[in-house]
Amino acid sequence: MQMGDETRQRVKFTDDRVCKSHLLDCCPHDILAGTRMDLGECTKIHDLALRADYEIASKERDLFFELDAMDHLESFIAECDRRTELAKKRLAETQEEISAEVSAKAEKVHELNEEIGKLLAKAEQLGAEGNVDESQKILMEVEKVRAKKKEAEEEYRNSMPASSFQQQKLRVCEVCSAYLGLHDNDRRLADHFGGKLHLGFIQIREKLDQLRKTVAEKQEKRNQDRLRRREEREREERLSRRSGSRTRDRRRSRSRDRRRRRSRSTSRERRKLSRSRSRDRHRRHRSRSRSHSRGHRRASRDRSAKYKFSRERASREESWESGRSERGPPDWRLESSNGKMASRRGSSL
């Protein structure tokens, strides 16, 4: 399907409406155009500008359009092969039954006819290209094959009645599903095997084989890339788990260290508290001891002073008693405030 200017501006080569087989230059609608099996216009967009855009983009990244084109060609070739088998079945029903030996001889004639047709088509192509020498060599091979064909036809003619031999024996071409006659002349064979229809089917089948190989290689590469990415993810996950395990171990280790430090700190605090309490008890004990000792010493000093005072008093009393006995009756005198002594007796008077 051709595009107008407005549609061309809107549509990109990645659009689903664009024919991927056309972008890869293998669409059967283009290849078989103008032949007896012309398929008409393709239902999808064909545009050479989009093909140029695709060729530029495909150099930078893999678009994997080969898969779409392969599916398209496989569908087309499958339909062609179905028609070939149907034509064979129809020929088997309409043509006269012959023995396996006669059929094999007829098959040999057909094979030689195909070989002659292919050689003549190749010779014509070489002659058109200006390679006359190679073309002459091909024609010499054609003469050899023609001699073989003549012998094969003679064997086939002798193996069956003349009436049956005169009947046209048809065969279906395995490449393009066209009918070939057993008695076709060289010109007819050359036109068929060198014609656009037969060569077009050869091009389509070769392109399909190439696409299958390319798709298989790219799928294998994608599978390898996918496997490598999965292995990388698994390796990263293992490393992450190991890192997480090490992180958890470090956290646990730090937690244990913190618990140990807290335990040691608590133990130190307890020891400090215990020592402080011990020192307090010791201080209180020493304070009580000193207080008891001071009280004991004070009491001792008091007792000593009392004892000393008692002895001194006793000594004074003894001394006084002794002096009174020597002096006679005591004459009590008191010292007045003016320094004069006064006798208690006088004061009583």
Largest sheet: 2 strands, antiparallel
Mean pLDDT: 77
Structural class: mainly alpha
- Enumerate how many helices there are, as a single number: 11
Strand order of the largest sheet: 1-2
Poorly predicted parts: 330-349
Helix content: over 70%
The quaternary structure here is single chain
Shape: rod-shaped
Sketch the topology as an H/E string, one letter per element: HHHHHHHHEEHHEEH
How much β-strand is present in the residues?
A: under 5%
Computed over alpha carbons, the radius of gyration is 67 Å
Task: Give structural notes.
Mean pLDDT is 77; it is low at 330-349. Strand 1 (170-172) and strand 2 (179-181) form a beta hairpin. The protein is built from eleven helices and four strands, in the order H-H-H-H-H-H-H-H-E-E-H-H-E-E-H. Helix 5 packs antiparallel against helix 10 (196-327). The longest helix is centred in the last third of the chain and has 132 residues, at 196-327. The chain has a domain at 20-219. By secondary structure, the protein is mainly alpha-helical.
Would you kindly provide a brief summary of this structure?
This protein is mainly alpha-helical.
